[in-house]
Backbone:
């Protein structure tokens, strides 16, 4: 059976479409929204309007790049949530209309599940069961993955996500948006010589609100004594913040791996593109005897390729949704 899925991703500020054939990604196209840089963060209304302008040309390009015809598509998948409601509505409405027009089944996909299943877009692929540290701007989770559609969140943030800690620190440092990649860039040039406290949270859960506050107070104190402190120490500040976040993440992941006995370990989500996290995971994996899996950069950030891969396994199980499906924000 030849299965060709058109996948739509519009959870935040990237409009993406992909074509997946029998689980393999044929095309994965993304239209970014540069306008948000002016505001230092994503503006929901601006994002949803941009999705409306981008979605038709992005789908067209995805189909052309994949070398398939519209008539070849056998199902339509879309991100149902979590995400920004206005952005999700654009993608959901387009997917429902496309499926209705061509009389195709619809597949709704959880955005966070898709980040985990991005590991099955290409080799090497983790074996079940595995642990996946899923880290993004809005979520930080440790997920026990027993099968493609059998996942359990065993740890998550109690307040702010790791990606938000990067972004808020970048705003304090006046780095612009998105701050995460910039902090990563400067951190490579610096030394982590400014210590920040680690939260004492039981189990596998995380907390980053205290770290954000500690960074803010530290910088205010140093700036009061030396107004040029940030400019003079930017690389070292970024290195210190990055190592603090990475250390918090990996200590919890190591705890979960040791206590479950699982040695198949993966990371996913936008923050998994961070070079410090990728390197630290590999080093910890070597010490702990793990098989580690890090997705290609195109599958770290929001993209429809991962949505299509997740949808393929739902297609095989016959897990379709109706035209009454509505998005959810969280």
Residues:
């Amino acid at each position: 059976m030849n299965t060709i899925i058109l996948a739509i991703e519009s959870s935040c500020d990237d409009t993406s479409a992909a074509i997946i054939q029998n689980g393999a990604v044929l095309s994965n196209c993304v239209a970014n929204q540069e306008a948000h840089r002016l505001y230092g963060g994503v503006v929901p209304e601006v994002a949803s309007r941009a999705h409306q302008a981008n979605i038709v040309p992005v789908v067209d390009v995805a189909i052309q790049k994949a070398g398939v015809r519209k008539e070849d598509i056998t199902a339509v998948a879309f991100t149902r949530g979590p995400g920004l409601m206005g952005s999700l509505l654009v993608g959901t409405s387009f997917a429902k209309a496309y499926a209705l027009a061509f009389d195709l089944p619809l597949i709704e996909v959880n955005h966070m599940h898709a980040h985990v299943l991005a590991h099955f877009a290409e080799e090497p692929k983790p074996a079940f069961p595995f642990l996946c540290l899923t880290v993004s701007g809005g979520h930080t989770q440790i997920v026990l993955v027993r099968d493609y559609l059998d996942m359990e969140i065993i740890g998550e943030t109690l307040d702010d996500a790791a990606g938000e800690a990067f972004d808020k620190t970048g705003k304090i440092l006046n780095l612009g948006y998105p701050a995460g990649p910039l902090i990563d860039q400067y951190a490579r040039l610096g030394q982590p010589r400014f210590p920040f406290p680690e939260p004492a949270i039981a189990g596998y859960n995380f907390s980053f609100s205290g770290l954000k506050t500690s960074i803010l107070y530290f910088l205010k104190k140093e700036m009061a004594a030396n107004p040029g402190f940030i400019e003079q120490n930017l690389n070292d500040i970024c290195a210190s913040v990055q190592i603090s976040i990475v250390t918090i993440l990996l200590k919890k992941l190591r705890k979960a791996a040791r206590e479950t006995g699982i040695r198949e370990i993966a990371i996913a989500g936008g923050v998994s593109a961070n070079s410090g996290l990728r390197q630290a995971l590999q080093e910890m994996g070597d010490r702990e005897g793990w098989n580690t899996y890090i997705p290609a950069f195109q599958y770290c950030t929001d993209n429809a390729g991962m949505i299509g891969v997740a949808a393929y396994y739902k297609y095989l199980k016959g897990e379709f949704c109706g035209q009454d499906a509505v998005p959810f924000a969280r």
Residues 124 and 293 are 7 Å apart (CA to CA). Residues 126-295 form a domain with the Nucleotidyltransferase; domain 5 fold (CATH 3.30.420.40). Strands lie at 4-9, 15-21, 24-31, 75-81, 106-110, 130-135, 140-147, 150-156, 264-268, 291-293. The longest helix spans residues 229-260.
